[in-house]
Amino acid sequence: MKLGEVLLKQLNKKYERDTMISLKIKGYDIRAKTDENGNAIQAFVGKAKENGTIKGDRYARTLKYDREGHLIKDHWERKGYAT
Q1: Do 56 and 82 meet the contact criterion of CB atoms below 8 Å apart?
Q2: Of the residues 28, 65, 72, 76, which has the fewest C-beta atoms closer than 10 A?
Q3: Where are the domains of the chain?
Q4: Would you state the pLDDT for residue 20?
């Protein structure tokens, strides 16, 4: 599954730092882990089980900055299945 524009728009927002956030977008349950700056860096997309875990796909985000702190690279990559 490929991340769509609506989902990317939500994941690119700033959230509370170093937490796990829960979203529901277009029928998908999403759990995302944020870094120390509040950027989502890992996302689990699919259907939530009763215990809160997500059965679906796992994505990881690459954020690279230059020496001045400007964003050079922002890329989401599918890492496999999440169970």
Answers
A1: yes
A2: 72
A3: 5-82
A4: 94
